[in-house]
Here is the input.
Amino acid sequence: SSRTTVLLSQLEKINLDSELGESDSARCVTAKILHLVQSQEKSKKEMTSKGSTGIEVILSTLEVTSFNFCSYRFIAVFHFIIMKCGGRKASVLVTKGGTQILLHLLLTASKESPPNEELMVLLHTLIAKIGPKDKKIGVKARVNGTLNIPLNLVKYNLQNHKLVLPCLQVLRVYSTNSVNAVSLGKNGVVELMFKIIGPFSKKNTSLMKVALDTLAALLKSKTNARRAVDRGYVQVLLTLYVDWHRHDSRHRYMLIRKGVLQCIKSVTNIKLGRKAFTDANGMKILYNTSQECLAVRTLDPLVNTSSLIMRKCFPKNRLPLPTIKSAFHFQLPVIPASGPVAQLYSLPPDVDDVVDESDDNDDAETESEIETEIDDDKDQQFENDDIETDINKLKPRQELGRPIEELKMYEQFFPELSEDFQGWDLVSKEPKPFVPGANLSGPIVVPTASEE
Here is the structure.
């Protein structure tokens, strides 16, 4: 056996024989495993090969023991493997129950005062890597009580970019769940994101990119979007976009500029956001910046996103349009002196005469989203009532083109449809020979050649 296999066997025996936290041999074995994985490519492949039980042994060790120095080394082993091997090994870790164990370790480690910075970086980096592979990570984080841990770390360590970056990556994963986004918004995550992304600065652009992606995911919640509008953040986003547009002359930060547009796009999903965008002169800003981006092919994503936002926020009017907003002028033959048509024609050019009722039931929709997520948390299965299961109803009804009386004239050509099959040979599918005097109710006797 290889050295890695021997060490894993020793670790498995230690788990069965003694307490890992009080075993000096456990410390020695974990240190050797970490050294082999970091120094030898062969050991890393043996740990993650298809038939290896290395990941299961380490996860079982982390599950049955309280947090200690050995656990920190095992987290370092997982961090090294995931960062080097990529998403395939992250999926393996999720299928083995690694998400639940890592969240439990994060909760235990966060209770220390002060928390270990290096450990928090490793744990959040791991959770951010395996999070997209686990569809239920948002629910698991909320159930385990770890939802606010990265948020609190960011609040009290804004200047520590080494710690803030993995925490923001975890918040981005958590925010894909609508219930988590609402909960984080109530705890001030929207205001915190705007502290990170503004004012304009080209320092720590990687942190800026993750923060914008996180904010765009959070603002998809209508509750968070309304909170951003009430605090005047729409104007902040437009100003930030203009600053990046002016200073990014070489187009190196296109992803950051697109991230700002994604935040604006999320905010303008609600009526208040569209109104705030229009009041902040957003139509003119995006139109002018888009015109300047048309000459550069690589900036097409910015032009496309800007076009979507402008189309969504442009005032809607009924035809005919007597104002300059229309390329064509539709003139009614007769305009009454009073009435709804005359009122429309008397409106100022900038007035939106189409009532927007899209956000009148936002609160009800938010509550329904939360109820839906809670039902998903309980893994309740509901049948779809719209699916018809009766086979007889699914069969198409065949209607005759003629009455039955007219079809009886063809009965002689199709005797099998009206006569019974007692006189038929079912094997050869031909009529049996008729024997005179034979008793049709009893067995039919066929005469032989000599009898004839």
